[in-house]
Amino acid sequence: MKRSLFLFIIVCAFFAKTNAIAQIQKHAQWTYTFSKNEVKQGDMVDLVFTAVLDKDWYIYSSDFDPELGPMLTTFTYTNNKSFSLVGKLKPQNPKTKYEEIWGGNVKFFDGKAVFKQTIKILTDNPVIKGSSEYQTCSHTSGTCVPGSDDFEFKGLKVVAGISAEQSVGTTPAEDKTTASSTEIKDTTSQETANISLSAGDSATAFKAKSETPKIDLTAEDTGADKSLWAFALAAFLSGLVALLTPCVFPIIPMTVSYFTNQTNGKFKALLYGVSIVLIYTLIGTVVSRLNGPAFANFLSTHWIPNVLFFAIFFVFGLSFLGLFEIVLPSAFVNKMDAKSDQGGYAGIFFMAFTLVLVSFSCTGPIVGSLLVASAGGAVVKPIVGMAAFSSAFAIPFTLFALFPQWLKSLPKSGGWLNTVKVVLGFLELALALKFLSIADQVYHWHLLDREVYLAFWIVIFSMLGFYLLGKILTPHDSPIERVSVPRILLSIITFTFVVYMLPGMWGAPLKALAGYLPPQSTIDFDLSKKVSGIAPAASSGVTKKYADLFHLPHDLDGFFDIKEARAYAKKVNKPVFIDFTGHGCVNCREMEARVWPDPEVLKRLQNDFVIAALYVDDKTELPEADWYTSRYDNKVKKTIGAQNADLQIVKYNNNAQPHYCIVDQNGDLLVAPKNYDLNPAHFVAFLESAKAAFKK
Predict the structure, then answer these.
(1) Least enclosed by CB within 10 Å: which of 50, 164, 367, 398?
(2) Are 424 and 490 a contacting pair, CB within 8 Å?
(3) What separation in angstroms does the CA of 625 have from each of 39, 282, 622?
């Protein structure tokens, strides 16, 4: 029963978050050539980097003070011994101008940019590869876009003979004049912390670093990696839980006994484990190819996939509770089993395939849940998830086959295996509601408002607690005469969770569940408003578009249309705080529940800004007169969400949420945008820097 503790680790791991910033536009086309086509070993030659820029766009050079703010153009080389750098990168005739926003002279290129780097050729067939980092900006809109490109120089012919330098006795190893430049260094580290903001974004942003806090966006860039690791951990723990189900656990001794009686048994056991991993990873690969990134928004916000995912989780939950079993056609399973009897290494693979099929009634719901959780248009996530799941699933079979004496310590099969399965069933039912809730919010069905959602969770986890105490029995359970200590401990944890959720029925914020519950604004009776002690924001007295569809948290007063917000900002002479958010955005709800209520944050949002909450996933269709064709993807934008998402991409070069932009009354950025950050002090600094920039 101690192994049942894995179940509660899975609950936490299933709630992994993502927050990745995606740069959308590219306005520089690069070509890479040599200054001459033929050299001798030891000769010098120039690498010529040429960027052709879109009309009205410019690129920053590489030879001005990197501390000013703009991202310098840099080139990083893959280290190898076929060439060496000579001297520094030489930009060819960039323009220079003083930019007040940065408080200094910057250098840039219009139309076309050329950079040259001298190298010495040390061997035949030199390999010259690397990557560039740069920043392009628009003269007209002020928009700035960071960019990167991989480069490779090809076509250089190294002919026989020695160069003039070598003829006087200087070998590459003895070249003293270029010794300091032969090391190939990574020069991008200092640039990655710079923030993309053009002169058009603000007349004063970041002018004085002592007055305006520098907002570091590099933390957001790692969000996707963290999410992938968390998902891999969840998948691995799911594989361990799958081992404890009644379809899998009894098979372990039988499988191990087979390999211990084989010649080369240990090698075959390893092959068996690898085959299990390959089979599940193949499933993940197929899912990733079917999804593709283009389906991300559709899968995460449209009602069809979300209702489908709800149905899948619900059916899997009922299966685990014992209402029925999900099984594959027996003819198919028997055919694979027959192939496993053929022997040899092919037989080992089909034996692993048979295990996957036979255990499907228990592992299928877990695998299906993992694939659903990764189905937001991801390409790598399903593959990583299945590899992690199958690794945990395969390791015990392999280890027990390698060390059969460990079997003596393996617990006996029994009723506890069904307990694991039933507990998973309750968890599947609870998780199913999340998908239905997303569709409910996006389409304004009002089926699962916050208190209704909480009521379901309270009932589900209460029944789980009573089940652990033996007060509820499912069809495959045996009567319980005594309740074991592990079951008592798990029931205590479950009922504690239930007690924690109860105040949420009357408006308690439940910060530990922030992001996984419907918004606070959907609750009918919010007692927390009566006792918070924070005065609600004064109403603007303006009739607002879409106020019947959307509501701001914490009684904040704001707008849901950017044009209305900017018009009102001009009237009251305040900056506009744009909140690019979404109904299905977990991190948005967490920011609203854990950062916005901070007194220092809330006070500034109430008094110093005009708030515009723009939902990028709302499916409310607008009148045909309001439709337009996007200059980004040439598609007609018909809904509130589609137009808000298009604004975020075209104007602010980002498509991740939450994304907070503070702009002037013309819509130009005052400071660099901010994303997911649960530190209220950082958010206060962000708001204060925008206030200072607006006043200047």
Answers:
(1) 164
(2) no
(3) 64, 48, 8
Contacts of 87 (CB under 8 A, 6+ apart): 118, 178, 181
Residue 19 counted as domain residue: no
On whether both 460 and 332 belong to a single domain, the answer is no
Query: Which pair of structure tokens corresponds to residue 208?
Result: 């004085």
Helices (H) and strands (E) in the chain, counts: 21, 18
Work out the mean pLDDT of the chain and round it to a whole number: 73
Answer for the pair 376, 296: CB distance below 8 angstroms, yes or no: yes
Q: Are residues 482 and 547 in the same domain?
A: no
Q: Tell me: pLDDT of 366 over 80.
A: no
Tell me the per-residue pLDDT of 657-680, one tens digit each, with 9 for 90 and over: 788 999 998 888 999 999 888 889
- In contact, 566 and 662? CB cutoff 8 Å: no
How much of the chain is in helix, strand and coil states, percent to nearest 5?
45, 15, 35
Counting the structural domains of the chain, the total is 4
Q: Name the domain boundary from 473, 506, 530.
A: 530
Number of other residues whose CB lies within 10 A of the CB of residue 277: 21
Q: Domain span at residue 287?
A: 228-410
Structure tokens, 277: 């991993």
Q: Does 498 share its domain with 557?
A: no
Using CA atoms, how far apart are residues 313 and 311, in angstroms rounded to an integer? 6
Task: Please check whether residues 521 and 550 belong to one and the same domain.
Answer: no
pLDDT at 293 over 70: no
**CA R_g for the chain:** 31
Phi, psi of 603 (to 5 degrees): -60, -40
**578-613 as b/e, with b when 16 or more CB fall inside 10 Å?**
bbbbbbbbbbbbbbbbbbbbbeebbebbbebbbbbb
Last residue in a domain, options 503, 530, 557: 530
The residue assigned the tokens 């589900």 is 460
In which residue are the tokens 């694939």 written? 371
* 68 neighbors 102 (Cβ within 8 angstroms): yes
Highest mean pLDDT of the ranges 169-178, 190-199, 546-555, 672-681:
672-681
**pLDDT attached to residue 334:** 57
pTM of the shown model: 0.43
Helix or strand or coil: residue 41?
strand
What angle is formed at CA 461 by the lines to CA 458 and CA 467, rounded to 5 degrees?
135
State which H helix or E strand residue 47 sits in: strand 44-53
The phi-psi region of residue 111 (left if phi > 0; otherwise alpha if psi is between -120 and 50; otherwise beta) is left
Structural contact between residues 329 and 357, judged by C-beta atoms closer than 8 angstroms: no
Contact indicator for 614, 562 with CB cutoff of 8 Å: yes
Q: How far apart are the first and last CA of the chain?
A: 65
Going 672 to 678 to 682 to 684, the CA torsion angle's sign is positive
637 forms beta bridges with: 628
Q: How many CB atoms lie within 10 A of CB 94?
A: 21
Encoded tokens for 288? 């990733």
